[in-house]
Amino acid sequence: MHSGLCLRVLILAALTVPIRAAQPAQETFTLTVPDGPTSTLSGSSVSLLCQVSPLINAEPLEVRWYRSSNFHSPALLYKDHKIQEASVDPRYRGRVSLTGGLERGNVSLTLERVTVEDRGEYVCQVTSEQWYEKASVFLTVNVTGSEPVLSVAKARGGGGQVNVICSSDGWSPQPTLTWRNKEGTEIRNGREVLNTSDPQGLVSVSSWLLCAPSDSDWLACTVSLSEEVKREGRILPHIYTAPTAVPGVSKEAFIVTLVLLILSLVIICALCSVILCKRRGSMWSSFKKSRNRSDQTELGQRPADQTELGQGPAGKCFILISR
């Protein structure tokens, strides 16, 4: 009987040892986050990944997402099995959630309607009663700038060269500007690039390229954040350096020809004015003649009237009409 009781005690001890040995392993954990930055477009949604390892149920734990310098006003705070609204940064209210699955140890943060101000470092901190761990995730917000505007200016010193200027603004982060010729070959020599930022952190980029118009039929200026996010403009530099006079014609001959052309236009306009005035005069004379004829016709229809032509004092002529 004693041997049977001892055997039962040994069996129970063998069953409970693995459980007690495994329990301390769950009291500590680590966090797994992406190695590089997480990128997204302005106005879209993004998930900042954070995974508890080993895979344990994170529902009883506290999850805090905050900016690197704003611990007490986090973007999201999960505690006591629910998301806490108090003391949360108002800029993130209604735009953040935990959608990874806490029961599987996924404490990733989903951020909606991303703006340029959302970029930067975010800290994922998970806390239990015995342990806590934190890790950082970097968010970059890509903003596509304006179409490149290209123009041409004469280079100092002449020599047939010109400055081709390319500018574009409203980018985030800082873009890459590339010049290419018609063959698609990148042009690196003779170019300068300048980047400036506005108060919102958006970058404007400008570049000057010194070239001879005969080197290429056209030039392309490409401003890009990646192969998928880019804008391009093209220009024909030789159009802006075309000669102003016809080859083989001297400057004096060109001026004389221009003056003669202007005089010819003036004479033609004067002749047209004279012809128009004559036509108006003939039309007025015809109108007066027809009017006089109608008046005479009215006088001829009055038989009782007698008309006499006399000469008054001072040799003035007068008409006597009697009935």
What do these coordinates show?
This is Ig-like domain-containing protein. Pfam families: C2-set_3, V-set. Keywords: Immunoglobulin domain, Membrane, Signal, Transmembrane, Transmembrane helix. InterPro entries: BTN3A2-like_Ig-C, Ig-like_dom, Ig-like_dom_sf, Ig-like_fold, Ig_sub, Ig_sub2, Ig_V-set, IgSF_BTN/MOG. Its main location: membrane. By secondary structure, the protein is of the alpha+beta class. It has three domains: about 25-140, Sandwich (Immunoglobulin-like); about 150-240, Immunoglobulin-like (Sandwich); about 250-280. Helix content is about 20%, strand content about 35%. The protein is built from two helices and 21 strands. The strands form six sheets. A six-stranded mixed sheet has the order 2-11-10-5-6-7, with no helix packed on it. A four-stranded antiparallel sheet has the order 12-13-17-16, with no helix packed on it. Strand 18 (about 220-225) and strand 19 (about 230-235) form a beta hairpin. The longest helix is centred in the C-terminal third of the chain and has 50 residues, at about 250-300.
